[in-house]
Amino acid sequence: MTDRSMDRQTEHWSRTRSLMIIHLIIWFFFAYVAHWFASDLNSFTFLHFPVGYYMAAQGSLFAFVIQLFIFVWQQDKIDRDCGMAEDD
Predict the structure, then answer these.
(1) Are 15 and 23 in contact (CB under 8 A)?
(2) Which of 23, 11, 36 is nearest to 63 (CA)?
(3) How far is CA 57 from each of CA 6, 10, 38, 43, 66, rounded to the nearest angstrom?
(4) Residue-range domain boundaries for the chain
(5) What is the pLDDT of residues 5-20, one digit of tens each?
(6) What is the pTM of this model?
């Protein structure tokens, strides 16, 4: 293995690890933090539903799906930048 490919692998892993940490923090926020404050969020409404209820019933699931697509898009960009992309 050449030094250049080792540098690419190191950069790829570093960027992938950072991306995973950021997305795990976002996931934690929507999975736990938003629900911890559900009673406080109920003072606001969204589409005539209390925001605390909305986040528990639909909002967090919607955020997870959106986050998944964003993660895949960002990871694909990292893979292509580092020369690790799978052939289409």
Answers:
(1) no
(2) 23
(3) 45, 40, 11, 16, 16
(4) 3-81
(5) 788 899 999 999 999 9
(6) 0.78
